[in-house]
Design brief:
This protein has 140 residues and is an alpha+beta fold. It has 2 domains: 96 residues, no CATH class; 34 residues, no CATH class. It has 3 helices and 8 strands; from the N terminus they run βββββββαααβ. The strands form 2 sheets. Strands 2-1-8-7-3 form a 5-stranded antiparallel beta sheet, with no helix packed on it. It has a 3-stranded antiparallel beta sheet with strand order 5-4-6, with no helix packed on it. Strand 4 and strand 5 form a beta hairpin. The longest helix is centred in the last third of the chain and has 19 residues. It is globular.
Length: 140
């Protein structure tokens, strides 16, 4: 259980302290992925709204009811490096640490854990940006 992000970087959001849109804190807005996860009211199977007739059990006559956006997408470029670094420096000034160990993470409150989770994500994005860009999708 948990929510993941995947693409140029991969990982799992920190349970209970990190939102799926946490990367927005680095100055980049997400876009919704145009793929909808739907459930057929008749047979309860899942299908993609782009191809509603893929519900084989109902032979294309699905009565879809529950549809929602599956992911949000971030597209970072090297233009964002300075903004990311400012956020990371701010986190380091609030919570001085040498290494993110489980013991250290468990010793701080949830608010600081949320900042550490953001720092961890930001470091992955910065490393990825060494290639010029970084795109990843986040589960909601």
């Amino acid at each position: 259980m948990g929510r993941w992000y995947f693409g140029d970087i991969e990982g799992k959001f920190w349970f209970g302290v990190q939102a799926s849109d946490d990367a927005s804190n680095f100055g980049v807005d997400y876009t919704e992925v145009i793929q909808w996860d739907c459930i057929c009211k008749s047979c309860k199977c899942r299908f993609i709204e782009e191809h509603p007739d893929t519900c084989i059990q109902c032979k294309g006559e699905c009565d879809k009811t529950e549809c929602e956006v599956s992911f949000i997408r971030y597209n970072f470029t090297s233009d964002h490096i300075d903004d990311i670094q400012i956020v990371l420096d701010d986190i380091k000034s609030q919570i001085p640490f040498q290494e993110l160990t489980d013991e250290f993470i468990e010793s701080v409150d949830e608010e600081k854990q949320a900042l550490l989770a953001r720092w961890d994500l930001g470091m992955k994005i910065l490393k990825c940006l060494e290639n010029g860009s970084c795109q990843f999708d986040c589960e909601l």
